[in-house]
Amino acid sequence: MSTQDGVTVETDTARLLRRQLKAADQALARLARGEDEALHDFRVAVRRVRSRLKWHPAKTKDIRELSRNLRKLTRVSDEARNAEAWLALLDVLAKEAARQEAEGVAQVRARLMQRLRISLDDAREAIEHRYPPLRADLHALVHGRQKLALPGNETAEFRVRAEALWHRLDESLAGLWPDLDEHTLHRTRLLSKRLRYWLESDQTLFAPDQSDTVVTELKALQTRLGDWRDAQKFGAWMSDTAAATCGAHAREMVLAAMREDVRGFAILQAHETLPGLVYLATRLSAHYSELRIQLEPHLAVGALAGLRKRMEGLLASDDVAAAADPAMQYQSSESDEVRV
């Protein structure tokens, strides 16, 4: 596998930045009009930029600072993103709600809508003030006012960094099933997203059609892992809401209902101030079971072996020194690895 004709790490990064800056501008215009999915699209564009810069060969002090500031920018909209995801999950969980249950679900929905409105306003205000200078810095990179490349075999170094990313994901995947440890799952989801972003956008090492199968697998895996994490975070929000409404003891009651503990469910029913939470807690328990069934085909031994074979074949190359140890070439702290 050789470098694609006429494409270097520097020119390819500039191409990606131009594309994502345009996508971010379009998403901001839609966000100002209050359109659905606009905030999500802006976050994706910024994450794609940051993902590329994060492990770029020319990661100078200025680029590292820019990457950190882009991460801070996306974090201000985390709460709004979560509220949107939980509202979508609420629709799934409440499909079969009876009249009495539906009234409680409506109250939960009202709480989430209020949370979404407040967090969206906060996110818009923060983006309006923080993004313009970051956008200017990114345009400076695109137009070559800051150096994007290093002398030497930059493509070889870029490939080694890509291999390192895959090896960390492979290791994380191997320890995920069947326990689905929360930290490992979160790390795996972010690493798979980061690798997918690179495969979808990079034209330095191979043509896009070479990676289509792996990209499809990673996207499906990322989606399932994201669904699981959204359910976890929604469950935590419900237990916090119960505690805020009825006292600390109600948190354990909601958690018991999510475990389908009959005693916890019966106690919750006696609290009229928790309408909807009882029903949603038990429905969320069933939802977890459905998500496990959906996850297993992606995490079973055979599926992982197939992904590993395709990914390693994609990265195989004779023009990079075989002695290079990807795990040593690109090191970062545990916290840094998962902050994509």
Automatic annotation (TrEMBL):
<dbReference type="Pfam" id="PF05235">
    <property type="entry name" value="CHAD"/>
</dbReference>
<protein>
    <recommendedName>
        <fullName>CHAD domain-containing protein</fullName>
    </recommendedName>
</protein>
<dbReference type="InterPro" id="IPR038186">
    <property type="entry name" value="CHAD_dom_sf"/>
</dbReference>
<dbReference type="InterPro" id="IPR007899">
    <property type="entry name" value="CHAD_dom"/>
</dbReference>
<feature type="domain" description="CHAD">
    <location>
        <begin position="6"/>
        <end position="279"/>
    </location>
</feature>
